[in-house]
Amino acid sequence: MKPYFLVTLVLLCGWLTTCETAANQHDADVDDNEFAEFEEFDDEEETTTVKSHQEPKERKVDTKTEDVVSKDEIEEEDDDGVVESEDDEFEHLQDEEEFEGFDKERGSSPKSKGSEKLPDLEIAKVPLHLRTNWDSFYVEMLMIAGLGVYFLNFLAGKTKNSKLAQAWLGAHKELLDSNFSIVGDDGTQKEATSGTLMKESENVYALWCSGRAHVEGMLVELKLLKRQDLINVMLRMFKPASDQIVITVDMDKSSMDRFVFAVAQKKAALRLHKDMNDLSQFAEKKNVDRYEIPSSYQILSEIGEANQTLLDKKVCQVLTKYEGLIEYIHFSDQYSGVKSQEETQSKLPETKAVLLFCFNVPDKGKTRPSDMEFVKPLLQFVFYCIDKVSRLQLGKEARGKADKNRQKAEEVFLKSIHSQRQEAAQSRREEKRRAEKDRLMNEEDPEKARKLEDKEAKRELKRKIPKVKMMKVG
Amino acid sequence: MSNEAKNNVNDPRRPNKIIRYKAPAQGTPSDDPTPDYMNLLGMIFSMCGLMMKLKWCAWVAVYCSFISFANSRTSEDTKQMLSSFMLSISAVVMSYLQNPQPMQPPW
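ok -> structure tokens follow
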């Protein structure tokens, strides 16, 4: 038993060492040029080493019992095998009894070389960590540089937008203070405060003003360009755009008569007519020839009388002078925002009376804080419009037309809701019937099935016979 | 005095008619969906980078979260922004720890 055990153990050790040497020899061939000339003998060497292993192993089994010693000897014999194939001259030196020490020395040098080779194998994997060969990471450097550039642009854009907003506020504060009780309320404090320019994002600033005749409140939104986003900056190189100032004036319902009116740049007019609830429902395109306004504008109006009153000399002058700066003006007592994407609406959308103004800041994109001064006359125009609209009184006929329009719109809406409800009810009924039929089909008990069938038949009959209302007379 | 009276008449200010500012409802979709899209894209890319060990995915995720941060509104939760940013950074770090080789350019 013991010898067999030893044999298997020895064979296992031998196999392990052959694997090592095979690997070593390959490395040797690759790394150590000293052994390059023996490359061709690779296979032969391996086979010879294997063969040379087996013989000494068998010899050793009987004489030696320690595994460690035998392992050492086998290792030595490995080297012996290598040395053997090198040169026949040194064959006589392979006698271990005589030259054990010498062998070890000889063995140690190739062995040490082998051990050198071993570390080489491991070191080959390490260089990527230890070697500071940063040149190979140039893609990563590019990425980090890109991020750095983006971040720098973010800071620069954010600062520029902030400066522009502050410049606008500085230029207009006096005018606003003279028109409103509070200028700049953010709605967070207990009492109404003044002087807060709300920052909604890095490129959108808002200002709420309130406390004026005919007006519930006015929201000024500075929709500046996204200077803080590098991608947007690059897109704008191809498609220039301007900073915009959007002013939403919430009018007192009592101060505004019933009409829907808009004057816009042609492109904007198309968009508004399609998207806005009130403009799509009530307004029609009108000719601009009758009025002294540039042809780049389009009029969308419900009531012709309102046009004539609103587009007076001063308004036309302003529209002509600031043609590029006025994007659109939209007056409506039925304003409810953009058309909802949802197909089903449970109730009529809430409407309010508003005056909307959208102004472009001069110097498309390349705005400087000093440019904000030029926008001041437009704010004065806003106040003029507010007063004009509050004074506007439509004639009886016009008012009647407006009322009729609104009633019609409401009816249409209710009809659509009704039809939607009917459809929903119908589909529900269908579902119920289908469910019952399924139940009937699945019913295994014949008695129950018959009962259900009778029930269904009765129900069908009931549905077919018109319902007769019983009335008590007398 | 008449001047003062005149001023009062012409003065459009009405201190008694002040209405407080009501911020628009949080849930309403605003005009610009960019930050939300970029946030989502960033998360998708960082998950791809982590799962499939793709370095370029992780880098794109970092860019997406940066863009989302730049375009975000102040009313939005900073925690979500920060978490997506951290996720993308961790995707980059993990892909480099697992495979320290430099990225191969496509050219």
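Residues 46 and 58 of chain B are 5 Å apart (CA to CA).
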